[in-house]
Amino acid sequence: MEEKAKGFMLLVTGPSGVGKSSLLQWLMQQDARLCFSVSCTTRPSREGEIDGRDYYFISREDFESRVQAGEFVEWAEVHGNYYGTLASELVQAESGGLIAVLEVDVQGGVNVIRRFGGRVLSVFVFPPSMEVLEQRLRGRCTDDEQTIERRLANARGELEQRNWYRFWLLNEDRERARKDLLSIFRAEELRREHWGEPPVGA
After folding, report:
1. Cα(190)–Cα(196) distance, rounded to whole angstroms?
2. pTM score
3. How many CB atoms lie within 10 A of CB 161?
4. How confident is the model at residue 129, as a pLDDT?
5. Beta strand extents in 111-155 (DSSP E only)
6. Among 36, 83, 138, 202, which has the minimal tally of Cβ within 10 Å of its Cβ?
7. Domain-by-domain residue ranges, the chain?
8. CB of 28 within 8 A of CB of 34?
9. How does the average pLDDT of the chain come out, rounded?
């Protein structure tokens, strides 16, 4: 059932290495109303990542305790680690009149769509090919061979979930992908459901 609340949230997902983070970082520079929803994860931080900015890096015990306390609107185990979206992050964004931005895995994204329905502007990002996706994963130099192989294997199953998402975006050319994502966002905010009242009375 769709939960009743004002506004909408932006959800962007796709296989690991497809370029979600760089697209969203650029988009958020274009509009100050966009507020990144920091997820919790049990995976180790990568070089350059900051706790509380990129993720909340917590232990499995802490994560499982939060699950029992009902603190997550969605959570999933992906690539051997837990990931979850805190309800408090969404409440904080909405109370401040901001638009929550969720960068989540494909499985978690489906759970968000199931829970919030039409409030979710959902975007699935595709790589140009599996070969290019592998190149990007290896180019990050953040994962060992076993992790890369697991991410590539999971990507094939993740691509099968594409029909849950309202918009599809091909991240082949960076500038084109950025413009496409901005167009998707602008079109959503112009839907009459988000106006509240018409700009000119009848």
Report:
1. 11
2. 0.87
3. 14
4. 92
5. 120-126
6. 202
7. 9-190
8. yes
9. 90
End-to-end CA distance of the chain: 33
Q: Put residue 55 in one of left, alpha, beta given phi > 0 → left and psi -120 to 50 → alpha.
A: beta
Q: What amino acid is encoded at 202 in this protein? A: A
- What's the CATH code, domain 9-190? 3.40.50.300
Decide: helix, strand or coil at residue 99.
strand
Neighbours of 129 (CB within 10 A): 10
Tokens 């990144």, residue located: 36
Q: Which residue has the tokens 């599996």?
A: 130
* E-only strand ranges, the chain: 9-13, 34-36, 39-41, 55-57, 72-78, 81-86, 99-103, 120-126, 167-170
202 falls in which pLDDT band (50, 70, 90)?
A: low
Match 């590539």 to its residue by tokens: 152
Weakest mean pLDDT among 54-68, 110-124, 134-148 = 134-148
165 Cβ partners below 8 Å, 6+ apart?
Answer: 13, 109, 113, 122, 123, 124
Average pLDDT over residues 85-110: 93
CB 100 within 8 A of CB 9: yes
Kindly report, residue by residue over 17-72, the tens digit of the pLDDT.
Answer: 899 999 999 999 999 999 999 999 999 998 889 999 999 999 999 999 999 999 99
Helix then strand count (H, E) for the chain reads 7, 9
Tokens standing for residue 2: 């769709």
Give the span between the Cα atoms of 5 and 26, in whole angstroms. Answer: 27
